[in-house]
């Protein structure tokens, strides 16, 4: 049974999520604040954290960075919950630290499906990383390859959110001019993650292990077609 931790200051929503997701086969923990979340994580290791962004006191972003700075919790996947779309500034500052986001409101079925999809993708990626470790003797470099691939995947998905608004972000591999500086910074981060990921893929001889959604690099392309 997969263990979820819901972090949200809205008591009614927490009760709805907890009851509905428990009925759908998940073990559900909950916290009403960022501080309570960090305290709970001293004794619990959930499979994924669903983190509301707008909370009084320590908000979701600050809580996220506390989680990532702790060696015991830094690898726990975190999906951000928000009532509005993430801003360009949010993605620039935190895009490399999250594992996805969901925009409220959503039905319990939609939330359950999204969580199940996340676990499916995560297990597939774990299998890929396991196979890479079996093949390569340099464990540290494989770990770097896996993390750069994870960050690239998340950033690429987040960048696509803005494609409609900006009419397409890349053209023939170059960042388009006239976009906000922050978006340029995001694209540069995405390109650097992409370059490092593919450089390590070539160095370690792992191209045959790449999933299709990383091979289909249509947003942050740094390699020739």
3D structure, described in words:
With 225 residues, the chain is α/β, with parallel strands linked by helices. The chain has 2 domains: 3-118, Rossmann fold, CATH 3.40.50.2300; 137-215, no CATH class. It has helices spanning 11-23, 34-40, 60-69, 88-94, 108-135, 139-161, 163-166, 181-204, 212-215, and strands at residues 3-7, 27-31, 48-52, 78-82, 101-103, 170-171, 174-175. It has a 5-stranded parallel β-sheet with strand order 2-1-3-4-5. A two-stranded antiparallel sheet has the order 6-7. The chain starts with a strand and ends in a 10-residue tail after the last helix. Residues 169-178 and 216-225 have low confidence and may be disordered. InterPro entries: Bact_response_regulator, CheY-like_superfamily, Sig_transdc_resp-reg_receiver. Residues 3-119 form the Response regulatory domain.
Number of strands: 7
Order of helices and strands: EHEHEHEHEHHHEEHH
The end-to-end distance, rounded to whole angstroms, is 42 Å
- Residue ranges: pLDDT <50 for 5 or more in a row? 169-178, 216-225
How would the global form be characterised? globular
Beta-strand percent range? 5-15%
Largest sheet strand order: 2-1-3-4-5
Radius of gyration: 18 Å
What's the CATH H-level superfamily name of the largest domain?
Response regulator
User: What share of residues is helical?
Assistant: 40-55%
Q: Which CATH architecture of the largest domain?
A: 3-Layer(aba) Sandwich
Oligomer: single chain
Protein name: Response regulator receiver protein
GO biological process, one term: phosphorelay signal transduction system
Keywords: Phosphoprotein
Domain Response regulatory: 3-119
